[in-house]
Amino acid sequence: MQWLIPWRVTEHDATGETALRITRAEALDERLVSPRACRPDCNDPQPGRFNVLVLGNSHGPDGFNALEQVYPGANLIPSWRASCMFMVGAREWYARNPGQIDAQTRQACMDAAERTFADVGRLQAMDLIVFSYQSTPAHPPLLDETLAYLRRVTDAPILVFGNAPAYAQPLPDIVHALALKRGDGVPSDRVVPGTWQADPATLEVTHRHGAGFVSRLDYFCKARRCRTFTVDGTRLTTYDRHHMSLAAAHEFGIARAETIRAEVARQVARPGPGDDQPGQTKAH
């Protein structure tokens, strides 16, 4: 059965074990980006604010929701498209791979990516650029081209979030089928083959361009068994096969906030292209 809305722990049975039920109202809280992402001028960098551009595919909201916890006073700017290779070279890639998505989605993806990367002034106004997407074997070469381009046009620190755990079925179905409890991990045979191989290629490209890599698998998975629930036991870590629930994204942001801030500070301290002095950024 394909569940389209998220799960939440809402009650306990007579034995004290976790019981789950679905309520449609919780869907609005679980997956959607924070309402403040949609305020007027949300796509514009703002002087005097710490401006963060969040790029990606349908995993863009995962990074956005995590970064809200890392930089609560920042101006987070959403820039993503579902099912989209949102990078430099997207048009050329789709010309070689036209059957990946439908024509309308493909055109919207290419147009949005080109607008974003062609606006050099906007890119240069950013204090941080973050990639949040689910990588496939096609992504690292495009990421390589995109990071090389960004390093030429802006001194902004760059972060890349690694893959989220990806399952062969929606996680609620796995929980039901295996009767998983709060402390149980998802068996490795329910994880999509190739999940563990995606991050090393992304990591190599990221480090080659002096950007920062933040692993999601290292946080949610140990010994190739991935957590079913958030730490407080109230929400599943994903409501489908791989997108993080809002609670899981917030938890990840809180847990990795110090790591992320330290990596951004490291990049800020290094000289930018052609600079003799370390770059500067606004306080955050």
Q: Can you tell me about this structure?
A:
This protein is α/β, with parallel strands linked by helices and 284 residues long. The chain has two domains: 1-30, no CATH class; 35-175 and 188-231 and 243-269, Rossmann fold, CATH 3.40.50. Helix content is 38%, strand content 14%. The protein is built from eleven helices and ten strands. The protein has a five-stranded parallel beta sheet with strand order 4-3-5-6-8, sandwiched between helices. Strand 5, helix 6 (139-153) and strand 6 form a beta-alpha-beta unit. Helix 2 packs across helix 10. The protein is globular and about 55 Å long.
| Terminal-residue CA separation | 45 Å
Strand content: 5-15%
Number of domains: 2
DSSP E strands, number:
10
Q: What is the H-and-E element order?
A: EEHEHEHHHEHEHEHEHEEHH
The name of the CATH architecture of the largest domain is 3-Layer(aba) Sandwich
CATH superfamily of the largest domain: SGNH hydrolase
- Helix content estimate: 25-40%
Q: Could you name the CATH class of the largest domain?
A: Alpha Beta
Q: Given the C-alpha coordinates, what overall shape results?
A: globular
Mean pLDDT: 81
Based on helices, strands and strand pairing, what is the structural class? alpha/beta
Show unreliable segments: 1-29, 31-38, 276-284
State the helix count: 11
